[in-house]
């Protein structure tokens, strides 16, 4: 277990919990511990889905500026690959993932939220990529994941201005997927993740992989990725179980084993 990032598992759902008061600034230690927690959550058989959470007050307010301020080009050229890789480890979790966003998700915090499959936010949360105000740009995936999520024009507006996006606008443009009162954010994320406990884990993995890989290729190639994954699932016990259960008992009653 990390010192500043914990992996907590209960009832088939893992929580990657950031705990670096006061604002969960993503220093090098936090970055490395996020990657470690993500890899463990992905590998564990007792984890069906993952919540990324920063606590009741703040998700993550960005990188540790004091740490970065002393770095020169050579320092960041050496570190930037590990920085990107630490958050990409969350994006590469093969199970359903959800960010539970309270308070601020800014800079690296917003980039971390962008790595999950969906984002549930407090109705008073604020998100953004304010790096331009420091004379830099997002460096942990913000220019790429944000533009893929909300479109290039909206992403450029957010990145060029460095402004904070309030919760209502974030929902309207698709930056977040649901708003709930701040006190309900974590429970809502747990409920979303919990629905996948006992679900067809191999099919979920194939669905996520097909969507994610398909976004980076042309339609013809994406359809081939889908076709191959679809066909491969017919070699699993879960496919036989699911279809047999549908015929005998109707939809939604199968018990899957992940084989």
Automatic annotation (TrEMBL):
Q: Which SUPFAM superfamilies match?
A: ClpP/crotonase
InterPro entries, per the entry: ClpP/crotonase-like_dom_sf, Enoyl-CoA_hyd/isom_CS, Enoyl-CoA_hydra/iso, Enoyl-CoA_hydra_C
Q: What Pfam families would the database entry show?
A: ECH_1
Enumerate the catalysed reactions. Answer: a 4-saturated-(3S)-3-hydroxyacyl-CoA = a (3E)-enoyl-CoA + H2O; a (3S)-3-hydroxyacyl-CoA = a (2E)-enoyl-CoA + H2O
Gene Ontology molecular functions: enoyl-CoA hydratase activity
Q: Check the record and name the CDD domains matching this protein.
A: crotonase-like
Q: Mind listing the UniProt keywords for this protein, alphabetically?
A: Lipid metabolism, Lyase
- Does the UniProt entry include the keyword Protein transport? no
The keyword Lyase belongs to this UniProt entry's keyword annotation: yes
Its EC number is 4.2.1.17
- According to its UniProt record, this protein's enzyme class is lyase
Biological process GO terms, please? fatty acid beta-oxidation
Report the superkingdom from the record: Bacteria
Family assignment from sequence similarity: Belongs to the enoyl-CoA hydratase/isomerase family.
What protein name does the entry list? enoyl-CoA hydratase
Organism source for this protein? Mumia flava
């Amino acid at each position: 277990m990390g010192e500043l990032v914990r992996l907590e598992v209960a009832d088939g759902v893992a929580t990657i919990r950031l705990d670096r008061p006061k604002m969960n600034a993503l220093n090098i230690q936090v970055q490395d511990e996020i990657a470690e927690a993500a890899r463990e959550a992905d590998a564990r058989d007792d984890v069906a889905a993952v919540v990324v959470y920063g606590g009741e007050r703040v998700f993550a307010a960005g990188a540790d500026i004091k740490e970065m301020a002393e770095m020169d080009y050579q320092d960041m050229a050496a570190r930037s690959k590990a920085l990107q890789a630490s958050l990409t480890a969350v994006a590469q979790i093969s199970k359903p993932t959800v960010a539970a966003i309270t308070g601020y998700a800014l800079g690296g915090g917003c980039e971390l939220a962008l790595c999950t499959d969906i984002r549930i936010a407090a109705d008073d949360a604020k998100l953004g990529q304010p790096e331009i105000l420091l004379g830099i740009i997002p460096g942990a995936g913000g220019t790429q994941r944000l533009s893929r999520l909300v479109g290039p024009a909206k992403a450029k507006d957010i990145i060029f201005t460095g402004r904070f996006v309030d919760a209502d606008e974030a929902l309207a443009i698709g930056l977040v997927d649901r708003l709930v009162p701040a006190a309900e954010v974590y429970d809502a994320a747990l409920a979303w993740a919990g629905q996948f406990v006992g679900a067809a884990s191999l099919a979920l993995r194939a669905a996520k992989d097909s969507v994610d890989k398909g976004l980076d290729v042309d339609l013809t190639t994406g359809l081939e990725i889908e076709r191959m994954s679809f066909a491969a699932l017919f070699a699993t016990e879960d496919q036989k179980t699911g279809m047999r259960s549908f015929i005998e008992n109707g939809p939604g009653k199968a018990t899957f084993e992940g084989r």
